[in-house]
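Repro:
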Amino acid sequence: MKQQNAKTSRFPLSAMSEVEILTHFKRYRFKDKSGHDLEMCADFLDLVHYAKQSPLQRLIRWLRQR
């Protein structure tokens, strides 16, 4: 994969908001086999949301699911 925008890659994902992460990945124009955008995939949206939660929030969510 060729790096197209060095400025974008220097900004760590951990410092981005959920919206900024989605915007970042939208620039890559990833598509599924049906041609749908990655940022329209519910699993990807859940993953971004989960990644931005604090460890305490993840623990609480895990405990509630038990």
